[in-house]
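TASK: fixed-backbone design
INPUT:
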């Protein structure tokens, strides 16, 4: 296993970390039914083979994902890893809530401290909530009392806000979405470089775009990957691109089988920093272009369409719709629509008032697109 510096802390993180968001299930459509036997085997195998960071969150698996690893890690594994988990900022409604959630997290995880504590999924709205509910003083307090070792945040918005957040607190680290298709989206490479320059350790999530860059890969992309000087799977092609960046401390992958854990650990035993030559980078640019050319609707997730008077989750629904075509992933998109989008936020709630279309910088015919998306996302 290759280990990298975790910012200025003096500790080193395995370049591969386990993400708890996609544990295998015993019942396909019930995220709370974690397959405890399989996941215990995966976690123990990963830690025995050098992985030293496990990332979790209050909300994963229908708010149950902290309970089960709490049990699986208890048997001598807790002290071998750095445990990361996240405050669900969007659930915080009062100044007392952060402490309430935090104490509940310690109980669920069966630990008396958390190594890496993140404000979960910061964006325009949740960033406001951080200020309104005094979440920064709460972070100061958990740091001073040793209840957490390092403070960080995960991010889903545009670069200017990312830079504002980086500069607003003495964070140790941040967690950003980064892969060769999304290199210019959200924080992107610009954010990676900015955070690194400011002394933050950077962890990466969604290196395989939640698995879409590894599974059901279109033939044209496969042909591009096969032109590489390295013989590699699509998953390795994608992981190599992230690990090539020396600013990255650790890449989290939410592996869903033991074979995936084994493959990724095997690949994480090689140091990939600064190893991709220009000719190979052209293959990444080509593969990205192929994916992008399959885009159905030109939404950049800027969020200008929000708030929707009917509370339709417009950018997320358009993303699921796009993903279905870009990654031949209709089944995944339908699953996410059913699991993550509440009936009151679905596309069929749109009343075609047109307010969002007036605000959309891409001039997307949102009402028509929502109708098409809903049909596609609810058809079997
Ligand atoms: N804070 C936040 O806002 C936030 C958001 C997203 C993620 N995260 C964290 O970041 C972690 C990583 O993100 P992610 O889960 O999206 O990671 P990812 O690595 O992009 O996706 C994981 C999926 O990739 C596939 N996969 C992994 N290794 C593979 C291999 N060797 N061969 C084939 N397929 C492979 C599996 O998909 P299949 O199941 O389809 O096989 C797996 O479920 C999450 O688990 C979570 O802990 C945080």
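OUTPUT:
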């Amino acid at each position: 296993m290759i280990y990298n510096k975790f910012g200025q802390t003096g500790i080193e993180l395995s370049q591969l970390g386990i993400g708890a968001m996609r544990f295998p299930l015993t019942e396909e459509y019930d995220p709370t039914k974690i397959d405890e036997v399989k996941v215990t085997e995966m976690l123990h195998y990963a830690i025995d083979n050098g992985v030293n960071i496990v990332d979790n969150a209050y909300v994963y698996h229908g708010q149950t994902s902290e309970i089960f690893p709490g049990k699986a890690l208890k048997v001598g594994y807790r002290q071998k890893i750095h445990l990361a988990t996240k405050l669900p900022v969007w659930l915080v409604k009062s100044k007392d809530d952060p402490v309430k959630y935090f104490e509940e997290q310690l109980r669920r995880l069966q630990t008396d401290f958390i190594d890496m504590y993140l404000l979960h999924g910061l964006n325009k709205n949740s960033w406001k909530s951080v200020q309104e509910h005094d979440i920064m003083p709460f972070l100061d307090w958990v740091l001073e009392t040793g209840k957490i070792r390092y403070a960080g945040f995960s991010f889903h918005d545009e670069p200017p806000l990312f830079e504002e957040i980086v500069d607003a607190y003495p964070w140790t680290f941040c967690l950003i979405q980064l892969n060769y298709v999304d290199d210019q989206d959200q924080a992107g490479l610009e954010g990676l470089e900015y955070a690194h320059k400011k002394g933050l350790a950077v962890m990466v999530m969604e290196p395989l775009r939640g698995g879409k860059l590894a599974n059901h890969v279109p033939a044209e992309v496969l042909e591009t990957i096969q032109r590489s000087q390295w013989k590699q799977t699509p998953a390795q092609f994608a992981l190599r691109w992230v690990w090539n960046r020396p600013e990255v401390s650790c890449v989290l992958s939410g592996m869903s089988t033991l074979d995936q854990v084994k493959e990724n650990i095997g690949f994480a035993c090689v140091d990939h920093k600064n190893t991709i030559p220009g000719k190979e980078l052209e293959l990444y640019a080509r593969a990205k272009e192929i994916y992008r050319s399959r885009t159905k609707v030109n939404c950049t997730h800027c969020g200008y369409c929000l708030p929707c008077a009917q509370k339709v989750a417009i950018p997320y629904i358009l993303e699921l719709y796009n993903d279905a075509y870009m990654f031949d992933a209709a089944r995944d998109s339908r699953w996410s629509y059913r699991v993550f989008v509440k009936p009151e936020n679905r596309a069929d709630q749109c009343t075609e008032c047109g307010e969002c279309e007036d605000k959309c910088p891409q001039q997307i015919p949102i009402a028509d697109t929502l109708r098409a998306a809903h049909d596609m996302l609810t058809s079997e």
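COMMENT: The beta strands are 3-5, 12-14, 16-19, 53-55, 82-87, 114-122, 148-155, 173-177, 201-205, 248-253.
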